[in-house]
Design brief:
Elements (H helix, E strand, L loop, with lengths): L1 E7 L5 E2 H9 L3 H9 L3 E3 L9 E2 L4 E7 L15 E4 L3 E6 L16 H12 L24 E2 L8 E7 L2 H12 L4 E9 L6 E5 L2 E3 L7 E3 L8 E10 L2 E8 L6 H8 L14 H4 L5 E9 L6 E5 L4 H10 L5
Parallel strand pairs: 9-16
Antiparallel strand pairs: 1-5, 2-4, 3-5, 6-7, 7-9, 8-9, 10-15, 10-16, 11-14, 12-13, 14-15, 16-17
Helix pairs in contact: 1-2
Amino acid sequence: MLRSFKITSEQDDVRLDIFLSEKLTLTRTKIKEMIEGGHVRVAGRVPKPSMRLKAGVEISGDIPDEESVDLAPEEIPLAVLYEDMYFLAIDKPADMVVHPSFGHSSGTLVNAVLGYMERQGSGFEVMGQGKEEGQKDPMAGMRPGIVHRLDKGTTGVILVARDSQTQEKLSGLFKNREVEKTYRAIVEGSPPWDVLTVDGNIGRHPVDRKKMAVLRSGGRHATTGFKVLERFAGFSLVEAYPATGRTHQIRVHLSHAGFPIVGDETYGRRAKKSAMRALLHAYRIEFVHPFTGAPVKIEAPVPVDMDEFVEKHRGQNA
């Protein structure tokens, strides 16, 4: 099945694949596949993904439906920080993608959680569909309800709902800013401040469309508090307290403040020399349990690579 679209470019000298990725909210990989598969026309002609558009030109085509991704349980080690009848809290390792996609069909957090539940002899509700009567395979059609996201390289606490009602309740807590989130990060340089609040709208970077940026106008409101925990030679350990949940928010706000996260290849300065990943960790999450009313506080231990980085530089002159 195909979904048709027709868009008029309002920009000059922008790449076709970047323009369509933003307008259709699809990945550039998917857009490239559509273009190379003959599903896109520019002024009636078949283009290349790198084609530069002119303002006023008409782009048309269709979006092929994706085939469903198989959510298969896999035996992947998981660190479970908290578990009850409503949800799990997982300590996500670095370089683990959260959801299966057409670039990552296995080895994801969802595959790992399904494997964990299968070994426990329990499962998850069929999200959005209800349990099918007579369903023999307890895992068939089931998927964990991922409540929020962490970037692939970010470690730490992530919540997984067992059923759609819990997912809705927990998502509501995040939306209403009733969840206190604490991150830890190692940044480049030594901030002149001990505490700082960055209040700057975040949106797509005006030049590099693969990045987010703090914008003078437009974008979405974003606020993050920061506190320096320790300074050492050329680097600092900070805590971050995001009040909102925008894409790359902590990374963008720290870079905007002049102290990007060590190892951040997108927003950092010395990424490849300092660390194998952006040293950002979702350290703590706190909220009131939506069903029991009890306070919930979950912490994930700081990962080895961050501890080793601090120990290596601690004691050197800041």
